[in-house]
Design brief:
Blueprint: H1 3-7, E1 17-18, H2 29-45, H3 50-68, E2 75-78, H4 81-90, E3 99-103, H5 108-115, E4 123-127, E5 137-143, H6 155-165, E6 168-172, H7 184-187, E7 191-194, E8 207-211, H8 213-216, H9 259-275, H10 277-297, E9 301-302, E10 310-313, H11 319-328, E11 331-332, E12 334-336, E13 339-342, H12 350-362
Parallel strand pairs: 1-11, 3-4, 3-5, 5-6, 6-7
Antiparallel strand pairs: 2-8, 7-8, 9-10, 10-13, 12-13
Helix pairs in contact: 2-9, 3-9, 4-5, 10-12
Length: 363
């Protein structure tokens, strides 16, 4: 693979050493062009063909389904992962004594949303590792990779635990999908949400979420609108009777979509499928291992091995101050909970890591 030619798709990398995809991914030129084409088309047609846009979105659902191994009917779109999680928890019937399990140091979405159910008597339990589930666990909320320390739970094991316990499994794949492969058919989550602006290199507002056919039978939509009826395409004579809910995951969208961002997301996903998810994962992990070794040479301890989010900790260096000093040299990493977080994607190079190592040595 000619990674150099692919890097040319990301003009920001000419002026910045960007090692912070876990905060923001760089948007490729071809993705920006897809967004521009949509707006040009609106000018050309005056939006008279807006129903055709939904056909394009259905094609993009198919691309996403190919990436994560599911059916296009399983995919819906939202503005962010918090919207998908709010749908997941808000659409369930809760009873006093029910429990929600998550991990310690999870992304705050999982804490805030689950804790909001406390007034219904629902208990949030935070565990260091999910090796077993307590009685009355109704839902498990877990990220594929921890955003601050790089921890990667065994998703297959967690899924098996949840199924044996009769609990629903919500997975946030925002910090891995686009860098690491995810097989929905194998893991079998009830919902998988991915905010595409990180590792999928998409514009903001292009979150997708998978909803299993089984969950769709019981999960109430959070938004009801004109597209919540199976006859929504008959815009000349929309149905005015009792609502007839579609079976596909699109029933959770309700109304119009963020078409510019979704067109952009479609192009980013196409690019990744063209390169090959396996090849991308191999390259990302190679760069992460190089970063981990380089950080060890600087005296840091690596918080979790075999992760593409490399979290380093020094007993005598302040990660926040260090990240700020590096930014002054246009080397961008992040500080999270006392760790310096380095998160390279396939568009990075060995030269980027060498620049970081030199800067750390000089500090």
């Amino acid at each position: 693979m000619n990674w150099g030619s692919i890097r040319a798709q990301f003009p920001a990398l000419e002026n910045w050493t960007w090692l912070n995809t876990a905060t923001y991914g760089q948007v490729p030129l071809r993705t920006r062009a897809a967004v521009d084409r949509h707006f040009a088309r609106r000018d050309e047609t005056a939006c008279t063909d807006f129903l055709d846009w939904f056909d394009d979105v259905d094609e993009i659902r198919g691309l996403i389904a190919q990436l994560i191994h599911c059916s296009a009917d399983d995919i819906a779109f939202a503005m962010n992962a918090a919207s998908a999680l709010s749908l997941f928890l808000g659409g369930m019937e809760w009873h006093a004594g029910d429990r929600i399990v998550t991990l310690r140091d999870e992304f705050p979405n999982q804490y805030y949303c689950a804790a909001s159910l406390a007034d219904q008597g629902v208990e949030l339990i935070r565990m260091n590792e999910i090796n077993s589930l307590p009685e009355r666990t109704r839902a498990v909320l877990v990220s594929t990779v921890n955003y601050s320390n790089g921890y990667r739970p065994d998703m297959m094991f967690v899924s098996q635990l949840a199924r044996r316990s009769g609990a629903l499994l919500y997975v946030d794949g925002t910090q891995s999908v686009g860098a690491l492969r995810f097989d929905t058919a194998a893991v079998k989550p009830d919902m998988l949400a991915v905010d595409g602006y990180k590792w999928l290199l998409c514009p903001n507002g292009s979150t997708f979420f998978y909803v299993s056919p089984e969950l769709r039978r019981i999960l109430r939509p959070a938004v009801i609108g004109w597209r919540s009826d199976i006859g929504w395409r008959s815009v000349n004579e929309l149905h005015h009777g009792a609502q007839r809910m579609p079976e596909a995951a699109e029933k959770y969208e309700g109304g119009m979509l963020n078409f510019p961002s979704i067109y952009g997301a479609g192009e980013s996903v196409r690019m990744m499928l063209e390169i090959g998810p396996e090849l991308i994962e191999r390259r990302v992990m190679e760069l992460a291992e190089m970063a981990a070794e380089m950080l060890r040479r600087s005296g840091a301890a690596i918080m979790n091995e075999r992760s593409h989010i490399v979290a380093a900790h020094w007993p005598d260096r302040d990660a926040g101050i260090l990240a700020q000093k590096l930014q002054e040299q246009r080397i961008i990493v992040a500080a999270r909970h006392g760790n310096l977080r380095v998160s390279p994607h396939f568009y990075n190079t060995e030269a980027d890591l060498a620049r970081l190592e030199t800067a750390l040595r000089d500090r």
